[in-house]
């Protein structure tokens, strides 16, 4: 007798939870960092891109370790569900590990870390939704720095251009944006065409933990902290 082709019922209790090995590995890494490093910081990215966080990792790698994402998993690794804190005041870090933040473990001196975060930044091309930090006005006339092949592209983005003798010419002064504008996708693309990296990215330190002593640099919203508890 042929086997039935009807779909078999699979009980969810018997399926493997996706991501469990990754979560366990993250917990193990955070617990190991807790033993290995003297200082813990929480930082908040500002307009941060992947290359920015990678730059921070590279600069601090010899003395530090950074964790991003899966904050609830990191909270558990730091002892969220333990009856007593693993270390005095460590619960202050756990309750503030919410929102768009990262966790930094380091053996570097506090003054070095604070100076690094104050000074480290990168400039990137802005994306749609970014608030312009300056006026961008392109005067009428030839645009010799823009490749001729780009003419159809920038014309499609709204600029009144024409190709003459292999050179793009702007037919009339054109304002791409003014300071304070929320950039549209078209404006953001034009800003990039003209090479203006106006988006500043970096990170701000929110708090620090060391040897049972907690110090807060930037006040964390109460409602966010209550969600983490």
TrEMBL record:
<dbReference type="GO" id="GO:0000956">
    <property type="term" value="P:nuclear-transcribed mRNA catabolic process"/>
</dbReference>
<comment type="subunit">
    <text>Associates with the pre-60S ribosomal particle.</text>
</comment>
<dbReference type="InterPro" id="IPR040637">
    <property type="entry name" value="Ribosomal_uL10-like_insert"/>
</dbReference>
<dbReference type="GO" id="GO:0005737">
    <property type="term" value="C:cytoplasm"/>
</dbReference>
<dbReference type="GO" id="GO:0000027">
    <property type="term" value="P:ribosomal large subunit assembly"/>
</dbReference>
<dbReference type="InterPro" id="IPR033867">
    <property type="entry name" value="Mrt4"/>
</dbReference>
<dbReference type="InterPro" id="IPR001790">
    <property type="entry name" value="Ribosomal_uL10"/>
</dbReference>
<dbReference type="Pfam" id="PF17777">
    <property type="entry name" value="RL10P_insert"/>
</dbReference>
<dbReference type="GO" id="GO:0003723">
    <property type="term" value="F:RNA binding"/>
</dbReference>
<dbReference type="GO" id="GO:0005730">
    <property type="term" value="C:nucleolus"/>
</dbReference>
<comment type="similarity">
    <text>Belongs to the universal ribosomal protein uL10 family.</text>
</comment>
<dbReference type="GO" id="GO:0006364">
    <property type="term" value="P:rRNA processing"/>
</dbReference>
<protein>
    <recommendedName>
        <fullName>Ribosome assembly factor mrt4</fullName>
    </recommendedName>
</protein>
<dbReference type="Pfam" id="PF00466">
    <property type="entry name" value="Ribosomal_L10"/>
</dbReference>
<keyword id="KW-0690">Ribosome biogenesis</keyword>
<dbReference type="InterPro" id="IPR043141">
    <property type="entry name" value="Ribosomal_uL10-like_sf"/>
</dbReference>
<dbReference type="InterPro" id="IPR051742">
    <property type="entry name" value="Ribosome_Assembly_uL10"/>
</dbReference>
<keyword id="KW-0539">Nucleus</keyword>
<comment type="function">
    <text>Component of the ribosome assembly machinery. Nuclear paralog of the ribosomal protein P0, it binds pre-60S subunits at an early stage of assembly in the nucleolus, and is replaced by P0 in cytoplasmic pre-60S subunits and mature 80S ribosomes.</text>
</comment>
<feature type="domain" description="Large ribosomal subunit protein uL10-like insertion">
    <location>
        <begin position="127"/>
        <end position="195"/>
    </location>
</feature>
<dbReference type="InterPro" id="IPR043164">
    <property type="entry name" value="Ribosomal_uL10-like_insert_sf"/>
</dbReference>
<dbReference type="GO" id="GO:0030687">
    <property type="term" value="C:preribosome, large subunit precursor"/>
</dbReference>
<keyword id="KW-0963">Cytoplasm</keyword>
């Amino acid at each position: 007798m042929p086997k039935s082709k009807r779909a078999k019922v699979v009980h969810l209790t018997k399926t493997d939870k996706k991501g469990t090995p990754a979560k366990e590995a993250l917990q193990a890494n955070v617990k190991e960092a807790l033993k290995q490093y003297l200082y813990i910081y929480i930082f908040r990215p500002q307009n941060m891109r992947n290359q920015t966080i990678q730059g921070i990792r590279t600069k601090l790698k010899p003395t530090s370790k950074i964790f991003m994402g899966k904050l609830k998993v990191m909270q558990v690794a730091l002892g969220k569900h333990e009856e007593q804190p693993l270390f005095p005041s460590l619960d202050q870090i756990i309750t503030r590990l919410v929102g768009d933040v990262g966790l930094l473990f380091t053996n570097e001196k506090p003054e070095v870390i604070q100076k690094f975060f104050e000074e480290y930044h990168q400039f990137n091309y802005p994306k749609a939704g970014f608030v312009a930090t300056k006026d961008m006005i392109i005067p009428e006339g030839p645009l010799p720095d823009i490749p001729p092949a780009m003419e159809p592209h920038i014309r499609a983005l709204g600029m009144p251009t024409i190709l003459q003798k292999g050179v793009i010419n702007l037919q009339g002064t054109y304002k791409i944006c003014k300071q304070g504008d929320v950039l549209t996708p078209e404006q953001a693309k034009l800003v990039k065409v003209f090479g203006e990296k106006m988006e500043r990215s970096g990170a701000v330190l929110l708090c620090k933990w060391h040897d049972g002593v907690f110090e807060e640099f930037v006040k964390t919203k109460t409602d966010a902290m209550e969600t983490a508890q």
